[in-house]
Amino acid sequence: MTIERREIWTRIITAFVFAVCCFSFFQFLLPYHLFFKEQTQLFLLTAEYFISYFEKPASLAAYIGDFLTQFFYLRGGGAVTITIVLLVEWWLVVVLLERTGLKKKVSLLALIPVLFDGILHCELFYSLSISVAVILVLFSFLVYTWIQNKWRMLVYGILILPLLYVISGAVFLLFPLLVIIYEINKRRVRPLYWLLLTGIAAVFPYLMKQVYLLTIKQAYRYPLATLGMRGVNFTREKVLALSSEAYFGNWERVYELANEDKLSNFVATYYANIALSKRNELPDKLLDYYQPFSQGLFLEVGPNSNWIDIFFSSDVFFHLGDMNMAQHSAMLGKIFSPKHRSSRMIKRLAEINLVNNDSTATRKYLRILEATWFHRKWAVEHERMLTGKTEDYPWLKAKRSQIPTYDALRLSSDYPAALNVLIESNPDNTYALDYLLCFYLLNKDIRSFGEVFDKWCKGKSYRKPDLYYQALLIKLVASQATQKEVASYAIPATMMNDFLEYTRIYEQSNGDLEQLRRRFGATYWFYYHFARMQKQ
Amino acid sequence: MKRNFLYILIIPFLLLMPACRETISSPQVQDNRPEIFPDYVEVTVPATIAPLNFRATGDYSKINAVIKGSQSGELDIQDDESIRIHPKAWERLLADNMGGSLDITVSLKQEGEWIQYASFPVYISEYPIDYGLVYRLIAPGYEVYSKMGIYQRNLSDFTQTALLENTLMPGTCMNCHSFCVTNPRQMSLHLRGEYGATVLMSDSETRLYNTKTDQTISACVYPYWHPSGKYIAYSVNQTQQAFHEIKSERVEVLDLQSDIVVYNRETNKLFSCPLLKSKAAFETYPSFSPDGRTMYFCTAEPKPLPGEYNHLRYSLCRISFDPDSGTFGNQVDTLINARELNKSVSTPRPSYDGKYIMYTLADYGNFMIWHREADLWLLDVETGETRALTEANSDDADSYHSWSSNSHWFVFGSRRIDGLYTRPYIASMDENGKVTKPFLVPQNHPSYYETSLYSFNVPEFVSGPVKMDVREVEKKALSKERIPFLMVND
User: Fold this and answer.
1) Residue B161 contacts A, CB cutoff 8 Å
2) Are A333 and A340 in contact (CB under 8 A)?
3) Of the four, A83, A400, B13, B395, which is 20 to 30 A from B417 by CA?
4) DSSP SS3 for B105
């Protein structure tokens, strides 16, 4: 086998192995990161949308990158797209290394920068636009190496640099670097030319920051949002899995994933709680999961909130039927996402307005989605719901029955006020009732829990969860209730006995956590005595 | 050979190009007017407005519009999607027909057939309009804020340029841009958040101030320039945001306290008077009469909040002001009595010719953009008569308004399109107070407003382009050095 032939085979094998590894990594280890990236963007196939990319540098790279990112919506689409993009990048590096005269191990050496780029794709803020920008710069440099005449090279270098900034953003800084390395390698020493190129590269972003309204830092980084690598975050992947499956409507899968992982993460708990609620098991299994007080019931939206928490915060309101807060959260989720556009939030806003029977607002969002490739079908289906009979769509009927029937004014963080309105409006909204009762229990507000229980649950014949009986016993002991009062709650005798046993061990062991954990670790009494909020 | 091959490809393409345009012969004629978006049917526009590009609603494969001037000129435009008028041809058509009208005949190709709709007029006013508008683009969401910016729009074309975007100062909210009688060289703007400041731009310089003093309840909020440019009246408000539960209402912004102060730009001092910072009343939304000798403002009797939020109603009042001494009179007159009307007034804006005060009227409160029932009203200063501007109002929120420098145009924010996003509408008013049907500020692409997810907040006329040195503002904002406002005790 000739050396050339061996090199060709090495390349084919390298490309194949790399492609398989890259695809497998993203498809099997980080699929939900890629789903999430698609959810936080909205790619419209309109001329106006294309033009909007020219408001910032890296216009073409960002447009192509976002165009490709829409394929992340498909199962496997993200892994395939990233693999293809990285393969193109690798191939360009191979060709360029060859142009510098390297003959051996070119394909392996070319993997180094590509692997670096690939790892960066594990970051949520790292977009495909950056890889596309790198490809555009590498290709421009490849053209440079094809030019034979040194004066033409000079003219091309000077002209292409500003253009590269416009189409590739800060990645254009690679170009003069590559030129200098290439020319040194070719023993073509032109320090004045190099200085000129470096000068243009150094000054151009500074000059353009005025045009693009960027800070100096942004001008030299765009479209890179942040620098540095934090590596692969598998916990985040699990949280994103919960969130994405919720978005896809696979709540049973959310339940399974929450059960498998049992993460000590409040966003994971948040989704686990909604999944439990959907199964009407929230109070039954609440304490089987990590519960950071009520933070796992509602995600706080405030000036110090993480944008991802804000992004997820509408799901619970939508589930409970609080459409106004769901809308508020979804709007914030959209505007706080990195590009201030989000297909997932637009869908949520369309759903909210569909539930509210606000056809004008619904159509606004559906029309936007109709201008996409992958959400058009969804939009058409929902347009049908808008004009069809509510009875034909059970989910819509159920959601509309949850809508509050009277008005009240409340602060965004006053969850009990909102839940009370939902329950008063529709006493069959057991999701809201359980959320309210659990909210008080997780905050150890036994008095408020008792009031809500007495108003909505006491005397009703249906089965009450053990959690509520356990809390009631605390309330009854604290209020030194009479036997008649205790009897009015019809608390099962076994529960009474367990409570006496818990109290005995608690008193005998002087409140020893370990002695109680084994038998009573999943009881409200244990939570009430030992749960403490820790600063994260 | 290669070149010949290229010609073979190009020539048929060029020959086919005009063939895309269809000749409409014997169309099916209908008596009704077409439904178009934006709705430009019978609107009155200034002679320098950008092309009124539009599309028809419903399904069609082609749209054709013949635009005929009442005095001269005709345009015939055909497209698959929308009518987008060539700017130069439009400019000429408007100039040739000033004071007259354009007659627009729309035909739609539906299911292979051309249907010609009844024509409609667009009136071209003789009143000139100012250079453009300045507004804030912001997604409707409060409490926390992400991307937003202050932008200026040239009304004679589609150019929108950013004056300031908060990406330059991450985490900063920017609001309440205000000009001295549409003068683009005298501007006030608030920045909130870590880099909080009030930016005052004048002919000579741009300065950043800290407007919160020990004696005022907050930093300065709603501004209004004295016509002399010497003073700026501000409200100071302790505000809270709350949410409605019912779907027809959404957000409520409540003042828990508010007063009015006036800033003297020459002495760098804030002053007020007991009647404008009474403990027994909320005072807000100050504005000056064009002669500078009267201040209009809104005032309400405090109620327990948020419990009685829907009983908080603001009256429109006035107090005399002496610009020479910077002192107020000792009597407040009520022009619109909230208690009698059982309604609430906000944002009184006197026309610059002194004839009228335009204000927003709603059932309660003072933050009207979330009030679907909010409408524009007009008070005749001389006669004291007041009326709803039914010519301009809609079923949804019609709120924040601003006058052009000649008082013949006003711009206001309306949520009539979708109930969610505020869009800028402009209407004209003649010498007799007759108001025309408002038109939506035109955009290059007619569907712009349907896909835009930003509200046009606080539209203000400017008589020329604002030349803000963004870098200077950015540098000064990031430095956190602020000139303090000094409060003069009464």
Assistant:
1) no
2) no
3) A400
4) strand
**Residue ranges, CATH 2.60.40.10, chain B:** 28-125
Q: Which residues of A touch B448 (CB under 8 A)?
A: 48
Beta bridge partners of B189: B199
C-alpha to C-alpha distance for B329 and B321, rounded to whole angstroms = 6
> Would the CB atoms of B144 and A336 count as touching at under 8 Å?
yes
pLDDT in tens, B294-317: 999 999 999 988 888 899 999 999
| Prior bond of B446 cis (ω within 30°) | no
Record the pTM: 0.91
Which residue of B35, B163, B195, B245 is the best one to mutate when testing the A interface, meaning the one whose CB has the most A CBs within 10 A? Answer: B245
**Of the candidates A508, A440, A504, the residue with the CA atom closest to the CA atom of residue A468:** A440
According to CATH, the topology of domain B132-483 is Neuraminidase (2.120.10)
For domain B28-125, say whether CATH 3.40.50.2300 is its number: no
Q: Which strands sit side by side in the sheet containing B423-428, from one edge to the other?
A: B398-403, B409-414, B423-428, B439-440
Interface check for A340 against chain B (CB to CB < 8 A): the answer is yes
The three-state (H, E, C) secondary structure of B31-95, written as one string: CCCCCEECCCCCCEEECCCCCCCEEECCCCCEEEEEEEECCCCEEEEEECCCECCCHHHHHHHHH
CB of A242 closer than 8 Å to CB of A257: yes
CA distance A92 to chain B (A): 30
- Calculate the alpha carbon distances from A124 to A112, A170, A329 in Å: 22, 19, 21
Task: Compute the distance between CA of residue B132 and CA of residue A303 in angstroms, rounded to an integer.
Answer: 34
CA distances to A298, A450, B21 from B26, in Å? 64, 78, 16
Per run of 10 residues, the mean pLDDT along chain A (length 536 residues) is 76 95 96 96 91 93 97 96 97 92 87 94 92 97 93 94 96 95 90 94 94 90 77 92 97 96 93 97 95 94 87 97 94 88 96 95 95 96 93 94 91 92 95 97 96 93 92 94 92 94 90 86 93 68
Q: What are the residues facing A414 on neighbouring strands?
A: none
